[in-house]
Amino acid sequence: MSSCLFDTVGSKCQCVCMISTEQKTMHILDAALPVFVRFGFRKATMADIARAAGISRASLYLSFNSKEDLFRAGSARAHRQTMAEVEVALKGQGSVFDRIEAAIATFQRGLIAPFGGSAEARELFEVNMALAADITLETRERLLDLLSLALHEAAAKGEIDLGAVEAQPASLAGIILAAMSGIKEMRGAEPGLGDDTRLFMRLLRAAVTPPG
Amino acid sequence: MSSCLFDTVGSKCQCVCMISTEQKTMHILDAALPVFVRFGFRKATMADIARAAGISRASLYLSFNSKEDLFRAGSARAHRQTMAEVEVALKGQGSVFDRIEAAIATFQRGLIAPFGGSAEARELFEVNMALAADITLETRERLLDLLSLALHEAAAKGEIDLGAVEAQPASLAGIILAAMSGIKEMRGAEPGLGDDTRLFMRLLRAAVTPPG
DNA sequence: GGACAAATGGACTTTACATGTCTAGCTGTC
DNA sequence: GACAGCTAGACATGTAAAGTCCATTTGTCC
After folding, report:
1. Which residue ranges form the domains of chain A, and what is each CATH number?
2. Which of the pair, B190 or A92, is modelled with greater confidence?
3. In the predicted model, what is the mean pLDDT of chain B?
4. What are the residues whose beta carbons fall under 8 Å from the beta carbon of B40, sequence distance 6 or more?
5. Chain D bases closer than 7 angstroms to a protein Cβ
6. Nearest CA in chain A to B39
7. Mean pLDDT value of segment A17-21
8. Which residue of chain B is at minimal alpha-carbon distance from A44?
9. What percent of chain A has pLDDT over 90?
C-alpha cells in the first residue's frame, strides 16, 4: 500500500510534492464542510472532522494548526472557488441582467445555500465573520467590482441606461447586492434564486432598459 | 399575561394542577426529541433543550432532575404512545397478517424511524439501552405477548395453521420480531415498511396459511 | 538491508464548557 | 401582600475538547 492516502488511482504518489499536500488539504476540507454544517462550529470537534476525513486527529494537526485555521481555510477556499465561478457566469452569454442574475445565483449557491439549510446557519455565519471577516469582506468587495464593471460596460454599449435612475455603476451594484442579502436574510436561502430575487431582477431590468 | 407558559388558548391555567405540569413535561419532551435526533445524546446540552422548549435551563431542572432523567422520560413516553398505537393496529380490520404487518409498521414508525435518519442513531440507541433498557425490554416483551396472542387467536379460529411449521405462537412471534430487527439493522429504517419487510411478511403468510 | 517520510495511537496539559445546585429577583394571580 | 412559576446568573465540579509531543508503525526509495 502506498504511504500516501491520497493517491490518484493508477499513479504512484510522489510525496513531498505540492500536489499531494494540496490534495490532502482539499480532502480534509471536503470532509470538514458537512461536519460544520451538521453541528455548527462549536459542536464540531477536531475528532469529528478527522473521522470524517478518515485520518487521525494528529494528522489533522499536521495540515492545520488549529480548528480556527481549518475553518478559515475552508471559508477561503469556498470564497475562492465561488468567485471563480462567478467570473465565468459574468462572462457568459445573454444580457447584463441575465449574466448578473446568473452571477448572483452562483454566489448564493456557493456561499449561502450550503449553510442555509442548517439550523446552525446563524452560528456559522457569525463564526465566519469572527474568523474570516477579511476574506468575506474582500470577496464581497470583489463581487461589487465585477458587477460594477459589467454594468459599466453595458452602459457604454447602450445596453442599459443608468441616466434614467441617476446612478453610478458602483452604486447600482451595491444596491443589487444589498437587496439580495436582504432578501436572503428575510426568506430562507433556497438553492439558486427565489421568487423575490427574480422579482427584484425584473424591477432592475425595467428601470434601466433604455426606451425604444 | 398568564404566569403559566402552557395555557391552552381561551382557558385560564390553574397552575398547581396536574394537567399543566403534564403539559409542560410533554412540551419539553416534544422540544427535546429533535435536539437529541440532531445532535445525539452527548452533544445535545440541557441549554439546547431549554432553548428549544422556550424556557430557561433552571426551569428545565424543575421538571427533570437530570439529562438522563429527561432522556428516560422521553424514551418512556415514546414507548408508551407507540404501544398504545400498536394495540389499536392489532385490533383493527383484516387478516392476522395484515394486522401484524400494521402493528410492526407502527412500532417501527414510532420507535425507530424517528432516529433512523439521524447520523447519531447508533449513539442514541446505545444510550437508550444504557439509560432505559428496562423500558425498552419491557416494551419488546409486551409486543411479543401481543403478537403471540394475535397468532394464538388466529390459530384457534383456523385462520392460520401453526402445525405446518411446528411452532408455538410465542416462538413465531419471536421470529417475526427478530427478523424485523435484523432487517432494520441491515437496511436503513424507512418510515413504514421496506421491501424486505414486506417480503418477509409474504413468506410468513405462505408458510402458515392453511391449505384449501 | 538502512534511511527516510507520512501517518498513527496514545499520553499529556490546559482550557473550555456542560452539569447540577442555589439564590435573589421578576411577573402575574388570587 | 402573599404566593407560585419562571428566570438570570453565579457557583463548584467534572468531563471532554484543544493543542502538543513522542514512540511506533507502515510503506517508499536507494
Report:
1. 11-64 (1.10.10.60), 71-208 (1.10.357)
2. A92
3. 85
4. B118, B119, B120, B123, B124, B127
5. 4-10, 16-22, 26-29
6. A39
7. 56
8. B43
9. 63
CA neighbor of A194 nearest in space, from A118, A125, A109, A96? A109
Res A146: pLDDT: 96
DSSP SS3 for A186: helix
**Full-model pTM:** 0.80
The one-letter amino acid code at B179 reads: A
CB of A160 closer than 8 Å to CB of A209: yes
- Closest by Cα among B157, B150, B156, B142 to B204: B150
Residues A113-136 have pLDDT tens digits of 888 766 788 899 999 999 999 999
Query: Would you say the C-beta of A200 is within 7 Å of strand C?
Result: no
Question: What is the per-residue burial (b if ≥16 Cβ within 10 Å, else e) of A30-59?
Answer: ebbbebbbbbbbebbebebbbebbebeeee
Q: How far is the alpha carbon of A140 from chain B, nearest alpha carbon, in Å?
A: 32
In this predicted model, what pLDDT tens digit does every residue of B76-90 receive, in sequence order? 999 999 999 999 999
Residue B64 is given by DSSP the state: -
Closest CA to B63 of B133, B5, B127, B129: B5
> What pLDDT, on a 0 to 100 scale, did the predictor assign at position A115?
84
